[in-house]
Amino acid sequence: MPTDAQNCRACRVLRLLALAGYSAIILWLSLTPHPPQLSGDFIGWDKAQHAAAYGGLTWLGGRALELYLAPPVRAWLVATLFALLFGGLVELAQGAMTQVRFADPQDLLANAIGTVAIYAWARSRCREGKG
Fold it and tell me: Would you list the domain boundaries of the chain?
């Protein structure tokens, strides 16, 4: 039986807009010559920021796509694949389209770690019947 969110057109649109907006922010932060820097020992660590950003992208993607795809685990798989592909394309764009940024395989690995961590969490929730 569909949930209220699945029946709510505004919910569908808002989730897709959140995903698109978040993707645009990641793209801007990745391609801007001098992105804002966070301070702190852990939060300022570049690879943790990558993992968190792409974990967030996967989470938003999964939440949006679970309103369109069944079973829910399929939505989370598609969101994971989207985030991995997006991360790879952004890294390539950094190398090709900017003068001061460069493609970094370690960034790509950090992106993948955040993405796969969220997928593993979502998959476990789907198994428990909560997702």
Answer: 4-128
CA-to-CA distance for 33 and 102, rounded, in angstroms? Answer: 10
Which tens digit of pLDDT belongs to each residue from 17-35?
999 999 999 999 999 988 8
CA-based angle 66:69:75, to the nearest 5? 55
The pLDDT value recorded for residue 2 is 54
Return d(Cα 108, Cα 9) in angstroms, integer. 35
Residue 16: what residue type? L
Whether omega for the bond prior to residue 71 falls within 30 degrees of 0, making it cis, is yes
**What's this model's pTM, rounded to 2 decimal places?**
0.88
Q: Which two tokens stand for residue 80?
A: 């994971």
Residue 5: other Cβ atoms inside 10 A: 14
Residue 9 tokens, joined: 């057109």
